[in-house]
């Protein structure tokens, strides 16, 4: 239903009332209505639709216009990230500095000292254990860091065993160089010579003079097979009750240098190891030759000892060896004077007839074949001569007695008698 105070047609402007295109002329009415409509329109517009980004907003009043037009002030945040970064950086630098100081301090030379320190590096000792030994003796500051440094530098595998004299304050490079080159302390040693042809009795007496050893203890050790660890061939010594000294012929004649304080057993084993070393110098076929001839190493050394005691000139050793071989082949007694001399307490310049009748397995005048064992320590040349004798038919020999230390050889006994007569003519009158 239409109201009486509103027009039934036309439209109403916010600036004034118009009906059918005519303006309302009522005083004050248009202004009031326009303000009211403007306010409603502005409120409705703000409520009905959200503001678009960057769209200008029309203030509804002077107060609102002042509020929305004032610039917003952004609050400044604390510099937390910067301070966190600086603190973390300080911690990292402190840790790194501490680590560097630890490395520098641990690897720098130990406090210097004028007094040298002696350490002993055992054979096969690992670099880690060497470092621990160095730290224990105050030669380095840290075994852990020193071991690590050795790995980095590729050192430690060439350290030589022995006793070293090092001074606190030496640098790492100086210590390593000394250990690599084996610059060890020269130990107090004893030096002695065992001449070729010496017997066990004579060797024992020489040890009393050279090493202040006990002769009885030396001979006792030379008779105990369980103490012989220096030679593989010594383990094959026969257990023959006729042997005067089981190691006769096995103690190789040589010049030795050993640590002062070495025991009788130490020296015996050193001589035995030298025998094995010398046998290794023989031609490669020596054991095959020995087997072909039906001889053992013990018999080889026995023949070599006979050659050693009978011959002075090297050229004659294979010839005398051939005489021994020829007599053994026909089972003829060897009749070697040196075997009789071995039985006597003192060497004689000339054997008597009664000496040749001494009852003993070593008496080669009464017994055919080889004696039970060697009668002296043979040289390598005598061993070679026993292994490779000259090919001859000789069965006899006699000393020329002309001062040349050579012999006259014979195949028959008649020729041998002539050689004896010739030998006697060579004797120079006193």
UniProtKB/TrEMBL annotation:
Site residues, Important for catalytic activity: 310
Subcellular location: Cell membrane
Keyword tags: Cell membrane, Cell wall biogenesis/degradation, Lyase, Membrane, Transmembrane, Transmembrane helix
Transmembrane segments: 80-104
Chain intervals for the UniProt region annotation (Disordered): 1-71
Main localization, broad class: membrane
Biological process, per Gene Ontology: cell wall organization; peptidoglycan biosynthetic process
Entry annotated with the keyword Transmembrane: yes
Biased composition (Polar residues): 60-71
Function as written in the Swiss-Prot or TrEMBL entry: Functions as a peptidoglycan terminase that cleaves nascent peptidoglycan strands endolytically to terminate their elongation.
PANTHER family tied to this protein: ENDOLYTIC MUREIN TRANSGLYCOSYLASE
Name the record gives this protein: Endolytic murein transglycosylase
Organism name: Cohnella lupini
């Amino acid at each position: 239903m239409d109201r009486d105070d509103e027009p039934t047609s036309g439209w109403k402007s916010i600036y004034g009332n118009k009906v059918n295109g005519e303006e309302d002329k009522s005083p004050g009415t248009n202004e009031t209505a326009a303000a009211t409509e403007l306010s409603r329109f502005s409120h409705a517009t703000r409520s009905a639709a959200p503001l678009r980004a960057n769209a200008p907003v029309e203030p509804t009043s002077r107060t609102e216009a002042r509020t929305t037009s004032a610039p917003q002030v952004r609050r400044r945040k604390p510099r937390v990230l910067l301070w966190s970064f600086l603190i973390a950086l300080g911690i990292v630098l402190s840790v790194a500095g501490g680590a560097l100081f630890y490395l520098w301090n641990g690897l720098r030379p130990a406090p210097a000292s004028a007094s040298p320190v002696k350490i002993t590096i055992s054979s096969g000792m690992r670099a880690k254990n060497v470092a621990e030994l160095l730290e224990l003796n105050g030669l380095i500051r840290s075994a852990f860091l020193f071991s690590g440094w050795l790995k980095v530098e590729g050192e430690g595998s060439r350290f030589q065993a022995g006793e070293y004299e090092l001074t606190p304050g030496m640098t790492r490079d100086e210590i390593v160089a000394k250990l690599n080159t084996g610059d060890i302390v020269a130990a107090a040693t004893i030096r002695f010579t065992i001449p070729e042809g010496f017997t066990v009795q004579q060797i024992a007496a020489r040890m009393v003079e050279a090493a202040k050893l006990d002769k009885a203890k030396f001979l006792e050790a030379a008779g105990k097979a369980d103490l012989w660890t220096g030679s593989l061939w010594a383990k094959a010594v026969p257990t023959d009750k006729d042997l005067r000294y089981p190691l006769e012929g096995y103690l190789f004649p040589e010049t030795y240098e050993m640590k002062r304080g070495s025991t009788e057993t130490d020296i015996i084993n050193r001589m035995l190891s030298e025998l094995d070393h010398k046998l290794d110098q023989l031609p490669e076929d020596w054991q095959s030759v020995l087997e072909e001839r039906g001889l053992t190493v013990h018999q080889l050394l026995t023949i070599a000892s006979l050659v050693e005691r009978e011959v002075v000139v090297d050229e004659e050793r294979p010839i005398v060896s051939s005489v021994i071989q020829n007599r053994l082949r026909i089972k003829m007694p060897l009749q070697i004077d040196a075997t009789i001399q071995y039985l006597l307490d003192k060497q004689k310049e000339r054997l008597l007839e009664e000496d040749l009748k001494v009852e003993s397995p070593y008496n080669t005048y009464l017994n055919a074949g080889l004696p039970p064992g060697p009668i002296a320590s043979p040289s390598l040349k005598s061993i070679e001569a026993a292994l490779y004798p000259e090919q001859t038919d000789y069965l006899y020999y006699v000393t020329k007695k002309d001062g040349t230390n050579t012999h006259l050889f014979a195949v028959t006994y008649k020729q041998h008698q002539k050689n004896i007569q010739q030998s006697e003519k060579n004797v120079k009158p006193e």
